[in-house]
Amino acid sequence: MFHNKKNLISLLVLVAGLVAVFSIIIATTAHQDSASSQTKIKAINKETKFAGLPTNDSATGYSLTDDSYNVNHFRLDFGKTEVVYGSNNSRFLVIHAKITDTWHANIDSVEIYPAIFASQKSDDADVKLSHLANKLPKNSLALKETQNFHKRLLPGDSAEVALTFELINNNTVTVHFTDANHSELGYKTYALT
């Protein structure tokens, strides 16, 4: 079949080269697929601005500072903030925080969510951002912390939570904090980088 060893060696080198090229292509494609399913994080501008309106409603126990938000029976201590990339090219502003039950009875911590909302400017209006976390990457810290809002906390207990807001563009995000009457207590702005 092969008349000399040179042709046989050339054919073996060609086959080995093709196998190597296809192995690299397959490995690269598999790596890209697994990377795209992992959490992609983009840092945001660390400078957050707090613009205080009346920051304390002592009659109802609501107050807001740069570091925390007190809502009647809860205290939310703010941590790091980031942008997390989710499924279907979605992006979320994620504000990590620690929530503490400051009351004398068990409270469902999800009760804090109606008092907080975020908005972002579109081309022609302020758009209220969605809280839905179903597009967050599975097994991500942001999703786990979002699910912690459903924990029932005992008095004095704390849990790591995340406020998540689905972004519509790259404009600055304003997170609004309200009091018991749903009047704005204050807000924080986050500039995306």
Quick recap:
This protein is of the alpha+beta class and 193 residues long. 21% of the residues lie in helices and 42% in strands. Pfam families: DUF5067.
**Average pLDDT, all residues:** 77
Q: Report the C-alpha radius of gyration, rounded.
A: 25 Å
Strand content: 35-45%
Total count of domains: 2
Keywords:
signal; 193 residues; 11-stranded antiparallel beta sheet; 2 domains; 2 helices; Immunoglobulin-like; DUF5067 domain-containing protein; Immunoprotect_excell_Ig-like; alpha+beta
Walk me through the structure:
Keywords: Signal. Residues 63-179 form the DUF5067 domain. This is DUF5067 domain-containing protein. This protein is of the alpha+beta class. It has two domains: 1-37; 39-192, Immunoglobulin-like, CATH 2.60.40.1240. Helices cover 21% and strands 42% of the residues. It has helices at residues 5-37, 141-147; strands at residues 40-52, 56-57, 62-64, 68-71, 74-85, 91-101, 107-108, 116-121, 126-128, 152-153, 158-166, 173-178, 184-192. Strands 1, 2, 3, 4, 5, 6, 8, 9, 11, 12 and 13 form an eleven-stranded antiparallel beta sheet that branches.
Q: What's the layout of helices and strands?
A:
Elements: H1 5-37, E1 40-52, E2 56-57, E3 62-64, E4 68-71, E5 74-85, E6 91-101, E7 107-108, E8 116-121, E9 126-128, H2 141-147, E10 152-153, E11 158-166, E12 173-178, E13 184-192
Antiparallel strand pairs: 1-5, 1-13, 2-3, 3-4, 4-5, 5-6, 6-11, 7-10, 8-9, 8-12, 12-13
